[in-house]
Amino acid sequence: MITKTLKTTEGKISISMPEQLNELKLEQLMDMQSAENLSDLQAVSILSGTPLDKLQNIRSADELQVFNQQVLSIATQIKYLYNSEAIPKATTFIIDGKTVIVPVIKNLSVEPAGAFMAAREIIAEEVARHVKQYGEEEWQQNFNPSLQACAQLLAQYFYCKATGLRYNEYAAAAFEDQVKQLPVTDALPIAKYFFLSYPNLSKPRTSFWHRALQRWRNAQESKVLSHLNISTR
Amino acid sequence: MEERAGIKSFEPFKYINTVNALSGGDITKWDDILNTPYDRVLTKLLLNKTEAAYQKRYTELMQ
Q1: Chains A and B: how many Cβ contacts under 8 Å?
Q2: Chain A: nearest CA to B63, how far in angstroms?
Q3: Which residues of chain A have a Cβ shorter than 8 Å from any chain B Cβ?
Q4: Do B39 and A202 touch (CB under 8 A)?
Q5: For chain A, how many structural domains are there in total?
Q6: How many whole angstroms separate alpha carbon A155 and alpha carbon A177?
Q7: Inter-chain CB proximity B35 and A205 less than 8 Å
Q8: Which of A42, A113, A123, A125 could form a cystine bridge with B41, CB 3.0-4.6 A?
């Protein structure tokens, strides 16, 4: 983080801006992506967590130019993050004031069944939306899921692992707020892994029986996406 | 046949269709199914499918 103190009409304001991508939270990236015609002031507001009206009180707009380099650097790093496939070994949540470290690389299966089915649903809907817009041919080449879908998916993956609680679909969906506090360098590569692994979402098994199950599931899930979860008998 | 009967009207319920089918329609069992390891749920779905196919073939042979 880089911190600068700037003069405002009311006195002084201290602004801290992320310098590295791992200091940027998923929520900040979502806010930046959802803002229409993002101005420099808005970008600084989102990145620093400073309310826009306070930034507007800064005496000289030129003073904000000290952050131009940070904004540009972050924007460049984000561009390359989308191409990164390195999955973090673990990620950290702050739950009820306590630090919870969740190993990731050693356990990439989405469990239990409720989380798996909800995650599969989120991915299927996102893929269906993409296919509807761009066509089915080589959809994986240019598939770029929304950050909202990434957050929803990660909430399903992390809820039980991070809280240690039994699965509950409403609580898991609400866990999205916690996921949004993750660094983008953790959140996006993990989400990308799940989107690209679809439909082989569960942990690979080596036994014949599990391989057979996998083939059956692949066959099931390659059917028309809109029919997912309907033919259950 | 399924489409003509209106299977698409179940789509808004998403994966709850699967949960409901596995619980035999008993809502008090939904939470337990949602908390079951996915491999086990998958095995049960496969078993249901195999049983349905068997019953269908058996009925056809009996006619």
Answers
A1: 76
A2: 23
A3: 109-114, 116-118, 120-121, 166-169, 202, 205, 210, 213, 216-217, 226-233
A4: yes
A5: 2
A6: 8
A7: no
A8: A113
Mark which of A14, A49, A81 sits at the end of a domain.
Answer: A81
> What is the Cα–Cα distance from B40 to A189, expressed in whole angstroms?
28
Predicted pLDDT at A195: 87
The pLDDT assigned to B51 comes to 95
Residues A106 and A176 in one domain: yes
Series of mean pLDDT values for 10-residue runs along chain A (233 residues): 86 88 92 83 89 87 80 80 83 95 90 94 90 82 86 97 96 97 93 80 38 40 37 33
What is the number of H-type helices and E-type strands within chain A? 10, 4
What tokens does A141 get? Answer: 């080449």
Question: Are A230 and B7 a contacting pair at CB < 8 A?
Answer: yes
What is the amino acid identity at position A191? A
Q: Do A233 and B2 touch (CB under 8 A)?
A: no
What is the domain extent for residue A184?
A: 90-227
Cα distances (Å, whole numbers) of residue B43 to A21, A42, A201, B22, B28:
42, 51, 15, 11, 21
Same domain membership, residue A119 and residue A60: no
Write the pLDDT tens digit of every residue in B5-56.
888 888 888 899 999 999 999 999 999 999 999 999 999 999 999 999 999 9
